[in-house]
Every structure is written in structure tokens, then in C-alpha cells.
């Protein structure tokens, strides 16, 4: 096991009825900005619950943070934070609202350059302070509710870049599985795929004898395989929703990745697909992962065999047969959830692959994966094989 430092400072309020308690974790005299997306929280009653919990407080609202949140929209919220002297942000929504709010929090206090896009260009390394934020999560998927990362898109340039900073952890996050009942099937499936791939990015690399991390990861994968399809079939099954929600948080709050190698190449390639073609984040992962696993089979051999046996219970046949069957089982799982796994399934014919690879180069992503051995040429081949 490798050395690590782990600090997961976000307080979690988990379970039904917890939204009512969120006011306790926000300073009484704070001027609060509630940030949200396109309005799902108005339809499902979540905004009303939040407003009730904050009755009598100084509250302003900012709506319209889109999926794959854009710098253009978020900079409008930064103006509101400054004009209204906001000193607490409350993100109410999915990963896009949480991520967008992290950017608002950092940009409102950013001094390093006049244009806060610099935060993305420097990966968050120059962020020295941020407006404190909390989160009411409505879509289990990204883990953004208990990590410090955010992914922001810029319409004008077609970029989608990530940053993280120790200043952008949510102070608290409320996870009430009941608020996920209203999710459309597509977003439920997206969330399961995203959490699954987050786990894989930190598990399917090479062995370092991290037995706790491995078995924790396998537990998350098995839970998602078991409960993902059930969340689609039984949308109001509280226990199922609770297990999916907690799995997604655990998949990317730092725990399973501490002390083990991490890959993240699937995510980096996926971000370029979203930036160029607008696919949902999880759709891009479902396209790239099976292709990447097949391409990196030799380097990942030992963990692929462990994955085949412990996650998919594949014990028959040669090593290569079991590995191929495990990759196929992964693809079948995504397809069963309704998330297609080929670029062509989304009308992307492959002619833009060179342009996506050029963007990877522009973003300095020329050596990806746990061995930093995925070159631009390899990325091109992985995308070609995903057509
Ligand atoms: O905007 P509203 O009206 O709220 O509707 C949203 C949106 O259209 C809807 N929705 C959310 N909760 C709902 C609901 N509809 C009904 N009932 C509810 N309870 O779902 C749609 C998608 O929401 P979005 O927040 O975009 O989805 P997700 O949570 O999958 O977030 C995706 C974003 O997170 C980034 C992705 O790149 C993408 O931009 N990621 C962030 C990460 C992180 N911070 O650690 C890691 C991930 O790998 C990922 O990159
Ligand atoms: Zn993801």
C-alpha cells in the first residue's frame, strides 16, 4: 500500500427528513445564496423544504446552472455573490450545481488573476480561499457532495476542465434518498454508471496489496450492480435509493483511492467527448471504459483477473477468456441500465476523433493512466475502438 494523507471534512446528514436540519450548520447571521439548476427542485418540492429550513434567514436565489455547468453562467452568480455580500452558498441539485457552486465559491474570492478561468487553467492550485458552501444533493453520481473537485465547461472555447482545492469541500451535505424518487430514468442510470466508473478508475490499475481499498471497491461495484437496475425498476424503494446514494458518495470521497494507484484516463477522454458533442458525462464513460480496458489489458491484467472473479464471479476458462468476459459484462451492465456504449449510438461517427485528440494535447493530457503511458496516439486508438 502506498503512503497517503486522507482528510474528508464534509459532514454528511443522511436520510429522510434531514433537509429540515440544514439550518443548524449555517451561521445564523450568514447571507445565503441558494444555487440550483433548471427547476427540478421546484417540481419535486425540494426547494420548498430548503426554504422552510431557512425561514427567517437572509436568502437570495440563483437559478439556471445547466448540466455541465458553464463558466459563462457561473460568472453571473459571482456578480450576485459580490453585489449581495453573500457569505454562504447552498448548492441544491446534482453534480453540476455542486460543481458550479464550488467554482462560484472560489471565483468570488479569486485574486490571482482578473479572469477566474485561470482557476481551471491551474487546476485550482492558486485558490487560497473560497466562500463556504453546503450542498443538498438530488442526484447520486459524481461524489461532488463530499469531495473538493469540480468540472467546468466554457462555451466560447469548447473546453471542459477540472479543478480541486482544499478550500472547496462542502462544509456539509444533505443526502436524503427520497429526493431522488423524481429522477428521470436516464439520470438514475447515468448516476450508477458514473459511480461505477469512479470506483473502477481507482481499483482497476495494478496491485499494491491495498486489501481494504480493493474489498471496499468491490463492495461498491457489487452494490451498484445489484441496486442500479432495482433503482430503475422500483423508483420509490427507499432502501435501494439509499444504497445507491451512499455508494456514489463513497466512490469519490477519497477513501477508496487513498494509498492505491489511480487511472482517470476514461474521465479525461470522456470530458473531451462531452465538450465537443454534448453527451452526458456518464454516456461518455460508458463509451470509453470498455474500449480502454481492452486496450490496456496487459498493463491491467492482474487486477482485471481479480475483477473478473470477485465482481463478476467468472471462474471458468483461460485468463484471457475471463478478462474478455469481464469487459463484456461491464459493457452489458451499462447497456442493461440503458446507457449505450458506442460513439455511433449517439450519432458520433468518429470523424471528430482527431479534433478531440488535439484538444487533449491542448489541455496537456498527453500521458494518461496509472502508468502515465497513454499517449495521444493511444487515446486516438481507444476512441477509434469505441466507435
Ligand atoms: O437542472 P435541474 O432542473 O435540477 O435538472 C437536473 C439535470 O437536468 C436533473 N435532476 C437532478 N436532480 C433531480 C433531477 N431531476 C429530477 N429529480 C431530481 N432529484 O438531472 C439533470 C442532470 O443533472 P447534473 O447535475 O448535470 O448531473 P450529474 O449529477 O450527473 O452531474 C454531472 C456533472 O458532474 C461532473 C460532470 O462532468 C458533469 O459536469 N462531474 C463532477 C465530479 C466531481 N465534482 O467530483 C466527478 C465526475 O466525474 C464528473 O466529472
Ligand atoms: Zn465521473
What can you see in these coordinates?
It is a single chain. This protein is of the alpha/beta class. It has two domains: 11-179, Rossmann fold (3-Layer(aba) Sandwich), CATH 3.40.50; 185-385, Dehydroquinate synthase-like - alpha domain (Dehydroquinate synthase-like, alpha domain, Up-down Bundle). 45% of the residues lie in helices and 11% in strands. The protein has 14 helices and eight strands. The protein has helices at 40-43, 46-53, 71-83, 95-107, 118-121, 185-203, 211-233, 238-251, 265-277, 281-295, 301-310, 319-337, 353-362, 376-385, and strands at residues 11-14, 31-36, 58-62, 88-93, 133-137, 149-154, 159-164, 172-175. The strands form two sheets. A six-stranded parallel beta sheet has the order 1-8-5-4-2-3, with helices on both faces. A two-stranded antiparallel ribbon has the order 6-7. A hairpin with a 4-residue loop joins strand 6 (149-154) and strand 7. Helix 6 (185-203) packs antiparallel against helix 7. The mean pLDDT is 97. The structure holds 5,6-dihydroxy-NADP and zinc ion (ZN).
Question: How are the secondary structure elements laid out?
Answer:
Layout: E1 11-14, E2 31-36, H1 40-43, H2 46-53, E3 58-62, H3 71-83, E4 88-93, H4 95-107, H5 118-121, E5 133-137, E6 149-154, E7 159-164, E8 172-175, H6 185-203, H7 211-233, H8 238-251, H9 265-277, H10 281-295, H11 301-310, H12 319-337, H13 353-362, H14 376-385
Bound molecules: 5,6-dihydroxy-NADP and zinc ion (ZN).
Amino acid at each position: 500500500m502506498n503512503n497517503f494523507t486522507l482528510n474528508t471534512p464534509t459532514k454528511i446528514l443522511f436520510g429522510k427528513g434531514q433537509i429540515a436540519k440544514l439550518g443548524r450548520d449555517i451561521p445564523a447571521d450568514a447571507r445565503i445564496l441558494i444555487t440550483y439548476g433548471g427547476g427540478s427542485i421546484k417540481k419535486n418540492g425540494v426547494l420548498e423544504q430548503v426554504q422552510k429550513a431557512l425561514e427567517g434567514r437572509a436568502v437570495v436565489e440563483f437559478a439556471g446552472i445547466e448540466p455541465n455547468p458553464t463558466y459563462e453562467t457561473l460568472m453571473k452568480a459571482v456578480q450576485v455573490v459580490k453585489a449581495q455580500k453573500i457569505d454562504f452558498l447552498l448548492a441544491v441539485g446534482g453534480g453540476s450545481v455542486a460543481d458550479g457552486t464550488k467554482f462560484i465559491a472560489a471565483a468570488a474570492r479569486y485574486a490571482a488573476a482578473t479572469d477566474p478561468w485561470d482557476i481551471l487553467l491551474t487546476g485550482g492550485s492558486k485558490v487560497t480561499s473560497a466562500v463556504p458552501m453546503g450542498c443538498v444533493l438530488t442526484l447520486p453520481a459524481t461524489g461532488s457532495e463530499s469531495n473538493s473537485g469540480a468540472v467546468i465547461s466554457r462555451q466560447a472555447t469548447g473546453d471542459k476542465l477540472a479543478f480541486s482545492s482544499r478550500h472547496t469541500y462542502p462544509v456539509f451535505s444533505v443526502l436524503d434518498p427520497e429526493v431522488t424518487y423524481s429522477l428521470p430514468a436516464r439520470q438514475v442510470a447515468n448516476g450508477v454508471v458514473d459511480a461505477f466508473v469512479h470506483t473502477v478508475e481507482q481499483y482497476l490499475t495494478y496491485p499494491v496489496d491495498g486489501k481494504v481499498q480493493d474489498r471496499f471497491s468491490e463492495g461498491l461495484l457489487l452494490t451498484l450492480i445489484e441496486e442500479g437496475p432495482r433503482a430503475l425498476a422500483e423508483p420509490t424503494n427507499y432502501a435501494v435509493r439509499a444504497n445507491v446514494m451512499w455508494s456514489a458518495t463513497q466512490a469519490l470521497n477519497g477513501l477508496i483511492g487513498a494509498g492505491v494507484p489511480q487511472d482517470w484516463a476514461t474521465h479525461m477522454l470522456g470530458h473531451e467527448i462531452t465538450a465537443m458533442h454534448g453527451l452526458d458525462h456518464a454516456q461518455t464513460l460508458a463509451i470509453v471504459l470498455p474500449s480502454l480496458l481492452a486496450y490496456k489489458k496487459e498493463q491491467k491484467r492482474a487486477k482485471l483477473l481479480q475483477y473478473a472473479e470477485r465482481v463478476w464471479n467468472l471462474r471458468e476458462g483461460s485468463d484471457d477468456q475471463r478478462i474478455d468476459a469481464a469487459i463484456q459484462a461491464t459493457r452489458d451492465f451499462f447497456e442493461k441500465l440503458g446507457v449505450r456504449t458506442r460513439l455511433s449510438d449517439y450519432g458520433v461517427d468518429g470523424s471528430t476523433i482527431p479534433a478531440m485528440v488535439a484538444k487533449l494535447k491542448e489541455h496537456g493530457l498527453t500521458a494518461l493512466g496509472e502508468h502515465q503511458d497513454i499517449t495521444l496516439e493511444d487515446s486516438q486508438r481507444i476512441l477509434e475502438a469505441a466507435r
